Amino acid sequence: MTEQAKQLLSAFVSKIPEIYFGPERVRFIADHIDKLSEEQKLLLLKYANHILSLMLERQASDVEIGGFGTQGYVWFRIFGNKERVEDLPQMKPDEAGVLIMSLLNPSQRQILMNERNLDFSYTFFYEKENVNVRFRADAYFDLDTLALNMRAIQAKVRPLNSLEFHPLAVKAMSHNYIKFGLSLVTGITGSGKSTTLDAIIDYHNQFDPCHIVIIASPVEYVHTSKKSIIKHREVGRDVLSFKDGVIQALRQDPDIIVIGEMRDPETIMAALEVTDTGHKVFSTLHTSSAVESIDRIIAEVHPSEQERVRNRLADVLISVVSQKLVPSLDGKRVLAKEVLIVTPSVKAAIKNNNTSEIYMMINQGAQQGMITLEQDLIRLYTERKISKENAIAYANNKTRIMQLLKAG
Description:
Layout: H1 2-13, H2 23-32, H3 38-57, E1 60-66, E2 75-78, E3 81-84, H4 93-101, H5 106-115, E4 117-126, E5 131-142, E6 145-152, H6 167-173, E7 181-186, H7 193-207, E8 211-216, E9 229-234, H8 242-249, E10 256-259, H9 265-276, E11 280-285, H10 290-300, H11 303-316, E12 317-327, E13 333-341, H12 344-351, H13 358-363, H14 373-382, H15 388-393, H16 398-407
């Protein structure tokens, strides 16, 4: 099957006129991909699924296909490290482009060509485990050639108790305990934010008779309604934007609104407003500490709005979890996290623009369920889960981690 797929890709590429360069070649692929027969399309689909099956077997989190940077190889990320897949045949940039385009429908191809980027989800039946596996995918251009990243979405949700949160932190995030307010899960790309968010949703789904609306781009894990009723709205497919999804959710009788990412000022303002109306809201940010998350939200809006947003954020923010995945001594990765619970002192610090004081409040807030990233890294080091070098490397505050290591 691999050889047949390679021949098909090669034959398709040979039809691209030699006078075409760069984006013109990609445009030719997009315009002619539907001329393949059903059998040929199926062959390419099977080949793509073969690559994804290999990825799952090798416990890779991500796959890279196409683009100048791959140098013709398929690459996997295995336990945090990017590796060439030597036992898969190399593909020329145009061949990878054909394979990527074959995964898209006509409207998706149009968006990709117009916007030079496309977020989408992909599902295939993984025969070895007898399950449907979902992937979050991003198609984009790399030096005028098509590239694709696909990330495997966990087939099962991790139970919230396996993430080792303090019981008071879980209480703060629980809709049963606090019916309203904003809880953030933050971290850089690939730090497991979605996994934590899904664990929180699943936690409520086990016992809370409430309505959860998830707005995501794309929808990753699909939850089956148990005790809660859960709606999934994918941006670009079910709703036009995060902001629209948040505003529309107010008319859908929700208890909990999950916003996949607060990526622009409009979404941030909509999230604060919807939280103000007495709903519980969960969202994510690309920040690496709790204090940075607060500063980022305020900095995202126009200076004339910042004072109002600062006061509103102080009133509605309940908790912030900032996390990183750290290489563990067993060759895998383990979760390190910083947890901020918004106490009256934290609220006052946000309102008075003294966010620099918040780190020490987290540092001294163990009894309220708080922990700094540095304290959690020390915990993982003393439990012999991570090395001393990685504890230092992944710390946000290098001075503080060195003090803690000396004290230990």
